[in-house]
Amino acid sequence: MIKRIEGYFEFRSLGTNWRTEILAGVTTFLTMAYIVLVNPSILADAGVPLPAATAATCLSAAFGSILMGIVARYPIALAPGMGLNAYFTYTVCIKMHIPWQTALGAVFISGVIFLALTGAGIRQMILRAIPHELYAAVASGIGLFIAFIGFQHAGVVVRDPNTLVSLGNVRNPTTALALLGLILMVALEVKKVRGSILIGVLAVTAAAWAMGQVQWTHATFGVGELSATAFKLNIRGALSKGLLEIIFVFFFVDLFDNLGTLVAVTKRAGLIDADHNIPRLNRILFADATATVFGSLTGTSTVTSYVESTAGVAAGGRSGVTAIVTGVLFLGAVVAAPFIGIVPSAATAPALILVGSLMMATITEIRWHDPLVAVPSFLTLILIPLTYSIANGLGFGIIAWAVLHLVTGKLKKQDWLLYVLAALFLVRFVYLGTS
Q1: Residues spanned by the domain of 153
Q2: 40, 50 Cβ separation under 8 angstroms
Q3: pLDDT (tens digit, 9 = 90+) per residue, 136-169?
Q4: Per-residue confidence at 242, pLDDT binned at 50, 70, 90?
Q5: I need a labelling partner for 161 at 20 to 30 A (CA). Which of 142, 193, 236, 321 fits?
């Protein structure tokens, strides 16, 4: 039985084993665990009951990750997406005065659209239309993005009213612990120690507790709390004319955030073939779309693939078992949600910084001597972290690629879909600029 399972997940061809996959799954979970606390707190501002939002967050992450692992067999974990949850709460519910039940209906409809486009093969066509040089730029840009997030969580980079960002106080205990954790993880990585990132996270957590740097308050949560949000979505209200633009934003941003994350994780894991195709792509997109529909039914905003999955890949994860382990841990988090706060940001921040640095390896695949390739790639790479959005960075890169090839007479008929994407992105940016 064990051999059959290993055969299904292609352990031999991927050069992996149970120990590596389990460690990778735990590593991914630890770098993503913050979502169990952060997502419910954001949704609560929209009026969603906090205990129910917590249960929905855990269950949707568990469902999506396990589905991805079993069906698509990739080490990609899913959870309610950051950015889209903020849009859900602060723009749709608070600014536009839309009830959270109706907003959930919009999320549901966007998920159904995902499924329809996946079934029709359109999402796959979109992914294949993107030049492979932009794949490399997206992967490197996401590396900068998650490293930037890590630096923020560590307190190395802080806000500055004059320069936007500045250097934080390295004498701050959180910052000092994070930097020491980074040194430890890199040292273990150099020595080829299995589970180096996980070991580093646990070591920094223990040190933070010993120094009294972890604040934790016990609270009670459970699956039973889900009754306050499960199946409370208002689909009919979401179909009203005024909400079509909201459905479009949920759909558009998640589509390209997901594609960007997908490219980054698969490239980091070496799972893209020589023709720049991703095996079982249809199954990956199916799992993502289904998870979004499931999440809306339980009571949370759009579920999407998480870039933190690269932490598990860096820890050696290569098969769907990594995602399944992460999903099982999220399932356990339904009742253990209060204990997630035990792991401080000082412990997860160095993991993000290390993984981000390793992802920069793809930058060598870009033809920097060719301006037609270099400029779009650079815009993609740099604007992902600077705009705090994978979709924004990829959008600018696609627009630049299309415009530069058009004005230099390098336009090709077979690239028609790329130009359609560029036009859609342009419309989106213009809309955002006037909204």
Answers
A1: 2-434
A2: yes
A3: 888 788 788 878 888 988 999 999 999 999 999 9
A4: low
A5: 142
Contacts of 88 (CB under 8 A, 6+ apart): 42, 43, 46, 100, 103, 107, 250, 301, 302
Contact 20, 317 (CB under 8 A): yes
CA 172 to chain centre: 29
H helices of 281-319, in order, are 281-298, 309-314
Q: Which residues of 92-104 are buried (b: 16+ CB within 10 A; e: fewer)?
A: bbeeeebebbbbb
- Whether residue 117 is predicted with pLDDT greater than 70 in this model: the reply is yes
pLDDT band (50, 70, 90) for residue 435: very low
Average pLDDT over the chain, rounded to whole?
Answer: 86
191, with CB counted inside 10 A (0-12, 13-18, 19+), is exposed
Name which residue leads in pLDDT, 131 or 215: 131
Q: CA end-to-end span of the chain, whole Å?
A: 57
Kind and range of the H or E element at 199? helix 196-210
- H/E stretch holding 11: helix 11-14
Q: Which residues pair with 79 in a beta bridge?
A: 304
Report how many helices (DSSP H) and strands (DSSP E) the chain contains, helices first: 20, 4
Half-sphere exposure of 170 (CA within 13 A, CB side): 3
Burial degree of 192 (CB within 10 A; 0-12, 13-18, 19+): exposed
- List, in sequence order, the alpha helices (H) in 299-387: 309-314, 320-336, 345-359, 371-386
Number of domains in the chain: 1
Q: How confident is residue 220, by pLDDT bands cut at 50, 70 and 90?
A: low
| Phi, psi values for residue 279, rounded to 5° | -60, 145
**What's the rounded Cα separation, in Å, for the pair 263 and 107?**
24
**Three-state secondary structure call for residue 338:** helix
CA dihedral (288, 293, 299, 300) positive or negative:
positive
DSSP sequence for 230-277: TT---HHHHTSGGGHHHHHHHHHHHHHHHHHHHHHHHHHHT-S-TTS-
CA separation for the pair 280, 9 (Å, rounded): 13
181 vs 213: CA distance, rounded Å: 15
What lies within 8 Å, CB to CB, of 204 at 6+ separation is 177, 178, 180, 181, 184, 344, 346, 347, 350
On whether the CB atoms of residues 237 and 284 are closer than 8 A, the answer is no
